[in-house]
From TrEMBL:
This is Pyrroline-5-carboxylate reductase. Pathway: Amino-acid biosynthesis; L-proline biosynthesis; L-proline from L-glutamate 5-semialdehyde: step 1/1. InterPro entries: 6-PGluconate_DH-like_C_sf, NAD(P)-bd_dom_sf, P5C_Rdtase_cat_N, P5CR_dimer, Pyrroline-COOH_reductase. PANTHER family: PYRROLINE-5-CARBOXYLATE REDUCTASE, PYRROLINE-5-CARBOXYLATE REDUCTASE 3. It comes from Magnetospirillum moscoviense. NADP(+) binds at residues 65-68. Gene3D superfamilies: NAD(P)-binding Rossmann-like Domain, ProC C-terminal domain-like. It is found in: Cytoplasm.
């Protein structure tokens, strides 16, 4: 079985770990390095720092899941695994060349961008393989990530900041939608608890319908919209070409992608 070393078990690392364990990946095949153990499930080998990794543990995949801002301090301690393991970074912004600098030019590096729905095996991860990555290593990464959702590979690393802005950060946009729908419902007179229940169930139900349906998102929207009805009145506001959701989302995605570029160094 593939041996996994997970470096950083915060919000994203723990979401992936939860998905793997639920999917039947053996806890015995995982070692977690995490100085703050609160989010690490019982039964998984946990160490606080790289020197404490058991000498007998030889990982096939080292997942780098710490914040981009601390990556340069954290990564060199794992250079000893270069040559035997593939490094799978999930950090926003950090390019493959950054890891080659810190781990050696020959290190096998996959840059990936997952998202937190991995915790319920509904994630999507986009991967880009560096030059040292063998077909076998690529296939091991594919299997691991596929256990927690969909996987797509791209050749052009330059697209990763845009990927991050759409699917990496995207769950936050959807949760915000649920938040503001609830607030709007309360503003319209609903009890706050009922408004929150309606917003949550509607976002989750619409998401599930989108997942299961063969129709496009646009068609599913049209299916809700009776001519001259209530939805059309709302969409006239939300689809305003100047200040509706379209231009607002474009601004948001551009801002996220720019931030990714800033985190590169
Ligand atoms: N949160 C998200 O939705 C997503 C995050 N990412 C990426 O995942 C990475 C982690 O992000 P989050 O999980 O959100 O952050 P987080 O702050 O929740 O998790 C980072 C974890 O790293 C641990 N850590 C710090 N120093 C360490 C060290 N020396 N060794 C081992 N662990 C150490 C921290 O204690 C923390 O638990 C980032 O690079 C981020 O760009 C990627 C996709 C989505
Ligand atoms: O906000 C961030 O920087 C990370 C990357 C994508 C989602 N969370």
């Amino acid at each position: 079985m593939t041996k996994i070393l997970l470096v950083g078990c915060g919000k994203m690392g723990s979401a992936m770990l939860a998905g793997w364990l639920e999917q039947g990946i053996a806890a015995a095949d995982v070692v977690v390095v995490e100085p703050n153990p609160a989010q690490v499930p019982a039964g998984v080998a946990l160490v606080g720092a790289a020197p404490e990794i058991p000498a007998a543990f030889s990982p096939d995949i080292v997942i780098l899941a710490v914040k981009p801002q601390v990556m340069a301090d954290v990564v060199p301690a794992y250079a000893r695994f270069a040559g035997q393991a593939t490094f799978l970074s999930i950090a926003a912004g950090k390019p493959i060349s950054f890891f080659q600098t810190h781990l050696g030019q020959g290190a096998a590096i996959v840059r990936a961008m997952p998202n937190t729905p991995a915790a319920v095996r509904r994630g999507i991860t986009v991967c880009c393989a560096g030059p040292g990555v063998t077909d076998q290593a690529r296939s091991s990464c594919q299997s691991l990530l596929q256990a927690v959702g969909q996987v797509a590979w791209i050749e052009d690393e330059g697209l990763m900041d845009a990927v991050t802005a759409v699917s990496g950060s995207g769950p936050a946009y959807v949760f915000l939608l649920a938040e503001v729908m609830a607030e709007a419902g309360a503003w319209a007179g609903l009890p706050a608890e009922l408004a929150a229940q309606l917003a949550r169930a509607t976002v989750a139900g619409a998401g599930e319908l989108l997942r299961q349906s063969n129709d496009s998102a646009a068609q599913l929207r049209i299916n809700v919209t009776s001519p001259g009805g209530t939805t059309a009145a709302a969409l006239a506001v939300l689809m305003d070409q100047g200040k509706g959701m379209g231009p607002l989302m474009t601004d948001a995605v551009v801002a996220a992608a720019l931030r990714g570029k800033e985190l590169a160094g």
